[in-house]
């Protein structure tokens, strides 16, 4: 990748209780680009996102190793106060359920205006105008009137727009969107994805899109980082992963989605179950379900750099995806 | 052509909305508003639509969990909507409902084996007492669960395994029709594939017919022989899978296809602009064609006159003024 990364996560390890949820995850996000963090439940993708945002704190969770560099500064080594100053202004997050990010007893306009007052030192009136402006940017009809409404008065799709408005209000360089459309209907999902794409192009924001949906990845992402058992097992451009995956797990995932040419045939199935992450394991975490398994898989594979920003954590990567 | 196992005619379900201390009726929620469908033996009918379109209420009426306000449900020649008491209990064995989240239908304090055995206790004539343990083992094996799972409790199972238990329970009654309401929506992709394969295998082995309800167009396309598209309590388009997917004639179906993200980056960019707005409330559906406020092709008549049903190809019906 010739572009300079705005966000680089390296060798991140996070524990929730006795479970090693994230085990050496690493990826980087270039300015103005979209990186999809793709994985199934339990892959550690959401915990990774929350760790970047500083939402994983003792006693619930602990970062045991790793760095999260935002513009070259390590967020994990920073005092909480400096970190708080960066949230919303430089990096912000859109949640799956916008209600969880909103205060139910304050109008949405007030909540957005608070950001301008706290970080930009605006007066009440200025902040309110700025808030209405942002609500307009996320295409909420009659924004000036709706700014006085409370979160419960918005439909699911409109609420998600409010969540996006909160995230983009201070023009951060990086937006993390954690399953932003999973709870929405397909026509509304299309609207929200298009809105995110438009905003990203207009503002030049980098987007870390956390999703389990390969359709969303294909539609939105420049690059993909596939996560399994707390580790990024493959990184590549979206086109490369779909054309020729280089990790057995990516290959298996792609085989499991119904597609027109598979009609009337059995879908490929990943046998077995994800590993128990509270049990330490020196080997590749996918080996018990992998059809390429060899003896070497008893030790954790290193990240093979395949050039052009592409990498895979598999000993047998040359054999993968050729079928 | 194979025989019809399930036929619904002009099915309607209205829920009165009550408010205030006297619970006065302030409005009517038209969850299902005149649906007619037919399911043939061994066939899978896919039903797609967004939240609030009435697909779950339809599922509950097809399985006699809900009584229709009006209209008919004909199951294997018997009028399900008219039956009561013992007659109803016997008839509804032939049609079973599979839920999205089977944990809601599994007793957390019963083992897998006990859950699958329960239908035999409720319906003693299904199998003599001495044979029930064997039947339970057979059913678990049929859905891909081993003897090791029999003694476990629901919380010790994964989502996919719980769904298998739900299917085993339904099969205990030897139904001819399974109504599956979003059976794989809560599951991870890799697990979803297992359940989809299982349903396909059971259909072939047991000669089942399915009504497969989902919002995921990809899964429905994979399984369905015929597809019905619902919007605000009505079926707006129905036809063979290859027609509804390849030659969608209703603007809403076309919008659904355009909105569904396809797992192929090469197709990015040539998608049409997404449909605007959100489905209106079924409490106060728009007049004329209920899709007209969101329809990019709407004309004046669409706002006032309900669209007629037009057959645009054999077995392919569309309710739209502009079709045909």
Automatic annotation (TrEMBL), chain A:
Organism, scientific name: Spongiactinospora gelatinilytica
Top-level taxon of origin: Bacteria
Species lineage: Bacteria, Bacillati, Actinomycetota, Actinomycetes, Streptosporangiales
Residue span(s) of domain ABC transporter: 7-254
UniProt feature coiled coil, ranges: none
InterPro entries according to UniProt: AAA+_ATPase, ABC_Ni/Peptide_Import, ABC_transporter-like_ATP-bd, ABC_transporter-like_CS, Oligopep_ABC_C, P-loop_NTPase
Any one Gene Ontology cellular component term annotated for this protein: plasma membrane
Gene Ontology biological process terms from the UniProt entry: peptide transport
Family the UniProt entry places it in: Belongs to the ABC transporter superfamily.
Membrane topology of the entry: Peripheral membrane protein
Keywords, sorted A to Z: ATP-binding, Cell membrane, Membrane, Nucleotide-binding, Transport
GO molecular function annotation: ATP binding; ATP hydrolysis activity
Protein name: Methionine ABC transporter ATP-binding protein
SMART domains reported in the protein's UniProt record: AAA
Main location: membrane
Gene3D superfamilies in the cross-refs: P-loop containing nucleotide triphosphate hydrolases
From TrEMBL, chain B:
Top-rank lineage group of the source organism: Bacteria
SUPFAM superfamilies for the chain: P-loop containing nucleoside triphosphate hydrolases
Species: Spongiactinospora gelatinilytica
Membership in a protein family: Belongs to the ABC transporter superfamily.
NCBIfam families referenced in this protein's UniProt entry, alphabetically: oligo_HPY
Keyword Amino-acid biosynthesis among record annotations: no
Keywords assigned: ATP-binding, Nucleotide-binding, Transport
Keyword check for Ribonucleoprotein: no
Domain ABC transporter: 6-257
InterPro entries, A to Z: AAA+_ATPase, ABC_transp_ATP-bind, ABC_transporter-like_ATP-bd, ABC_transporter-like_CS, Oligopep_ABC_C, P-loop_NTPase
Protein name per UniProt: Peptide ABC transporter ATP-binding protein
GO molecular function terms noted in the UniProt entry: ATP binding; ATP hydrolysis activity
Gene Ontology biological process terms from the UniProt entry: peptide transport; transmembrane transport
């Amino acid at each position: 990748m010739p572009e300079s990364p705005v966000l680089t996560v390296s060798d991140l390890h996070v524990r929730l209780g006795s479970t090693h949820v994230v085990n050496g995850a690493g990826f980087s996000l270039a300015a103005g680009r979209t990186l999809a963090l793709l994985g199934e439940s339990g892959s550690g993708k959401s915990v990774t996102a929350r760790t970047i945002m500083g939402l994983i704190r003792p006693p619930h969770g602990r970062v045991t190793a790793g760095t999260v560099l935002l513009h070259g500064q390590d967020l994990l080594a920073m005092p909480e106060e400096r970190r708080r100053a960066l949230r919303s202004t430089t990096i912000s997050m859109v949640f799956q359920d916008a209600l969880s990010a909103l205060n139910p007893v304050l109008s949405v306009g007030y909540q957005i205006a608070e950001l301008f007052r706290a970080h930009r030192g605006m007066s009440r009136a200025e902040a309110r105008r700025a808030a209405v402006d942002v609500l307009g940017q996320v295409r909420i009809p009659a924004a000036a009137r709706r700014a006085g409404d409370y979160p419960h008065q918005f439909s699911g799709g409109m609420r998600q727009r409010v969540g996006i408005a909160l995230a983009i209000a201070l023009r951060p360089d990086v937006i993390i969107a954690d399953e932003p459309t999973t709870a929405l209907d397909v026509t509304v999902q299309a609207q929200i994805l298009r809105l995110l794409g438009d905003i990203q192009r207009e503002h030049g924001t980098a987007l870390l899109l956390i999703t389990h949906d390969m359709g969303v990845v294909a539609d939105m992402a420049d690059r993909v980082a596939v996560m399994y058992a707390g580790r990024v097992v493959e990184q590549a451009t979206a086109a490369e992963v779909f054309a020729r995956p280089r990790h057995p797990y990516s290959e298996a995932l792609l085989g499991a989605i119904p597609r027109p040419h598979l009609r009337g045939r059995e879908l490929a199935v990943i046998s077995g179950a994800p590993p128990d992450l509270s049990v330490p394991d020196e080997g590749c975490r996918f080996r018990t379900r992998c059809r390429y398994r060899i003896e070497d898989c008893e030790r954790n594979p290193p990240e093979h750099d395949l050039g052009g920003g592409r990498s895979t954590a598999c000993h047998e990567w040359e054999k993968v995806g050729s079928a | 052509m194979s025989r019809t196992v399930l036929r619904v005619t002009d099915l309607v379900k209205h829920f009165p909305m009550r408010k205030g201390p006297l619970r006065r009726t302030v409005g009517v929620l038209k969850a299902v508003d005149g649906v007619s469908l037919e399911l043939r033996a061994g066939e899978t009918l896919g039903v797609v639509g967004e939240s609030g379109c009435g697909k779950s209420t339809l599922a509950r009426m097809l399985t006699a969990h809900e009584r229709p306000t009006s209209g008919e449900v004909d199951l294997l020649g018997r009028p399900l909507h008219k039956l009561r008491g013992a007659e109803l209990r016997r008839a509804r064995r032939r049609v079973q409902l599979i839920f999205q989240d089977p944990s809601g239908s599994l007793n957390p304090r019963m083992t897998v084996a006990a859950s699958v055995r329960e239908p035999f206790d409720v319906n003693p004539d299904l199998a003599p007492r001495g044979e029930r343990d064997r039947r339970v083992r057979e059913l678990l094996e049929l859905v891909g669960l081993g003897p090791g799972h029999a003694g476990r409790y629901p919380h010790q199972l994964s989502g996919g395994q719980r769904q298998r238990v739900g299917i085993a329970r339904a099969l205990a009654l030897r139904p001819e029709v399974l109504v599956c309401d979003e059976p794989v929506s809560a599951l991870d992709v890799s697990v979803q594939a297992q359940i989809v394969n299982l349903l396909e295998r059971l259909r072939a082995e047991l000669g089942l017919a399915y009504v497969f309800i989902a919002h995921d167009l990809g899964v429905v396309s994979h399984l369905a022989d015929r597809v019905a598209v619902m919007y605000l309590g009505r079926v707006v388009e129905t036809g063979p899978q290859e027609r509804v997917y390849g030659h969608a004639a209703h603007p809403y179906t076309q919008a659904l296809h355009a909105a569904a993200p396809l797992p192929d980056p090469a197709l990015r960019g040539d998608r049409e602009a997404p449909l605007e707005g959100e489905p209106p409330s079924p409490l106060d559906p728009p007049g004329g064609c209920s899709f007209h406020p969101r329809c990019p092709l709407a004309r004046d008549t669409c706002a006032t006159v309900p669209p007629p049903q037009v057959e645009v190809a054999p077995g392919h019906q569309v309710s739209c003024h502009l079709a045909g």
